[in-house]
Amino acid sequence: MKNFSDIQIGNTIGPREQFVSKDECRAFAHSSGFAAPRFTDDEGARKEGLPGMILPGNMSLGLLSKFVTDWIGPEGGAQLVRISTTYRVPVQPDHTLVFQGFVTHSVPEERTAEIDVWIENEEAERLVTGTATVRFDK
Fold this sequence. Notes:
The chain has helices at 22-32, 37-40, 42-47, 57-72; strands at 12-20, 78-87, 95-107, 112-120, 126-136. By secondary structure, it is α+β, with helices and mostly antiparallel strands. It is elongated, with a radius of gyration of 16 Å.
């Protein structure tokens, strides 16, 4: 279990690698009601000027949120209370994504920490960036 007293500015989170397949992207798109060609078909995405299929933004947000909650752990000692993202470059499936982050700020009175988080591709290009706030019980 993570305790607020263990958190220091500059602590790193990750890196964690995860391969995301086109089938996973399609399944997410269909189950979420985002079955537009850009999320399900390379040719359809190219017709929209994209390099091929891309992950829905909500899928990238969900993967980044899971990265933070996995770091927090399941014991209930902390919770993700806010996450915001900026989508810089389309995230394409059938690639290994790298998730990383580090603690940038803490508020002892509230037992919260802010964490810069991001998703990179294999070339270390930041595709999605964000800020997460975690509140600790202890």
